[in-house]
Amino acid sequence: MKKEKRQFTRVNDQIKVSPVRVVKDGEQLGVMPLEKAKILARNAKLDLVEIAPQVKPPVCSITDYGKFRYQQSIKEKDIKQKSKGAEVKEIRLSPKIANHDIDTKTKSARKFIKQGKKVQFNLLFKGRDLAHKDTGFAVVKRMAESLEDVAQVEMKPKLDGRRLICRLEPKK
Fold first, then answer.
1. Distance of alpha carbon 148 from alpha carbon 167, whole angstroms
2. Predicted local distance difference test score (pLDDT) of residue 53
3. Of the residues 22, 57, 82, which one is the last residue of a structural domain?
4. Do 108 and 129 share a structural domain?
5. Which stretches of the chain drop beneath a pLDDT of 70?
């Protein structure tokens, strides 16, 4: 499992760089020595939180640290939800599929593509079907051609063991 690098936020006495730019409630208080900023935070019964340590001088905010962490977690969760990649829907086929079944599978693929999802066709060769690969390629090619108006081929049909895979993505 991949470990995330968690950015460490310095608070109050953990901040060592002086001078700092101080912000309170979205209003800039200006650049001041670190000790003066700590005194302002204590008088307001809040914390001095380093928001942007990479800039010169570092930006610190006078705020409640618990509230700050809560807002950060909400932002991270929101970013995670929005960064979800394009979902891939899988449609399984066989080389001996009937024409009506191809039409039905094409309709469902069209519905997925209109929703903005990618569609992957998986055609599995069973038993001696592998001797007639051309029929499998013909089925996948027919489905891709029938969806040309709404989708484009992302991954051309290729044989992977006993499985023939082809992926379509919505047209831009």
1. 12
2. 85
3. 82
4. yes
5. 1-7, 84-86
Contact 19, 33 (CB under 8 A): yes
Q: The domain containing residue 144 runs over which residues?
A: 88-170
3-state secondary structure of 11: strand
CA distances for 79 relative to 7, 65, 82, angstroms: 16, 21, 5
- Parallel/antiparallel/unpaired status of strands 27-32 and 88-93: unpaired
Q: Count the alpha carbons within 13 Å of 44 in the hemisphere toward its beta carbon.
A: 17
Distance from the Cα of residue 116 to its chain's centroid: 15
SS (H, E, C) 41-104: HHHCCCEEEEEECCCCCCEEEEECHHHHHHHHHHHHHHHHHHCCCCCEEEEEECCCCCHHHHHH
CB 123 within 8 A of CB 95: yes
